[in-house]
Amino acid sequence: MKNTVFLFIISIFIIQSCSVNSEIIYHKNAASTSVTDIDVKRFVAEMRAAVPDSLNDKKKYGNFDTFPTAWTSLVELERQDRETRTTNPDHVRIMKKIFMKSTKENGAPTIISLKTDHFTQNDYSVLTDYMKNERLPVEQNIFNRWDGKTLTIDTDNFNLKNIKTAISSKSSGNNPEKAEEMLTMYFKNISTTLKFEKKIKSMTGKHDWVKQIDDRTVKISYDLKTIFEKDKEGMFENADKKIVIVTE
Fold first, then answer.
1. How far apart are CA 137 and CA 40, in angstroms?
2. Cα 80 from chain centroid?
3. DSSP structure string for 108-163
4. CB 175 within 8 A of CB 220
5. Cα–Cα distance for residue pair 5/46, rounded to 1 Å
6. Whose CA, among 35, 77, 78, 145, lies 20 to 30 Å from 58?
7. How far is CA 183 from the centre of its chain?
8. Is the dihedral of CA 161, 163, 169, 172 positive or negative?
9. Does residue 191 contact residue 21 with C-beta atoms inside 8 Å?
10. What does the alpha-carbon distance between residue 114 and residue 7 come to, in Å, rounded to a whole number?
């Protein structure tokens, strides 16, 4: 899917400051669902103000006006793009569980959303393989291990790796340092909310960016400047490598 809407999303990342908010829901059956919302309202408004017809440039922005407003799977998006179909059966199965939609105002998207629906640990393993070829801006923390009772958070995942890789492959000539510069310049706010269907019983381990909001919710608020500092010594008061959340 080399010319899908995700290339448009990546283009937005490097053009205009965006807010990116993710939510991961941990289900009782050991599956999890994630939704990432990318707020592009400011980008759309400024592009239209500068050049009213600029968003009709399909070569640059794709089929902007045809973005689905209901959740649409990657399989269906690939079919609509009339591209070479993915044939790997595991990848096709995963694509059926990844969805995209847009929220619109005055006919133009203001929020682009990406969802992974009820993924199991096996699904995440297949997704890792799938993403070797397809650059999806999924939240890195979806790969933390959840068994239906206990979530083990690896704080090394607080790195925005997938977004950085997507930007690097699209617009910075596979230059990681340039991708990092783009992230710090153009991203305004990035956060991830973890929600549990069962109440939280205990949480061990501490990190400055992690805060328990209530008995079912934990929030991760990223500090972009700190993420890309080469020497992080002394920058954290708390920075445990593992945070373990046990539910009832």
1. 15
2. 23
3. EEEEEEEEEEEE-HHHHHHHHHHTTTS-----GGGGSEE-SSEEEEEGGGTT-HHH
4. no
5. 20
6. 35
7. 13
8. negative
9. yes
10. 13
The mean of the pLDDT values for the chain is 79
- The Cα–Cα gap between 70 and 115 comes to 12
Distance CA 35, CA 28 (A): 18
Backbone angles phi, psi at 14, to 5 degrees: -95, 0
In angstroms, the CA 60 to CA 7 distance is 9
User: For residue 214, which phi and psi values (nearest 5 degrees)?
Assistant: -155, -165
152-190: burial string, b at 16+ Cβ within 10 Å, e else: ebebebbebebbbbbbbebbbeeeeeebbebbeebbeeb
Q: Specify the 3-state DSSP secondary structure of 234.
A: coil
> Which residue is it, tokens 């002394």?
234
Which residues on adjacent β-strands are paired with residue 143? none
* Cα atoms in the Cβ-side hemisphere of radius 13 Å centred on 57: 12
Spatial separation of the C-alpha atoms in residues 62 and 40, rounded to whole Å: 15
Q: What is the pTM of this model?
A: 0.81
User: Which carries the bigger pLDDT value, residue 10 or residue 128?
Assistant: 128
Rg for the chain (alpha carbons), in Å? Answer: 18
* pLDDT digit string, tens, across residues 14-72: 444 567 889 999 999 999 999 988 887 766 666 666 555 655 555 544 455 667 899 99
**Cα atoms found within 13 Å of the Cα of residue 170, Cβ hemisphere only:** 27
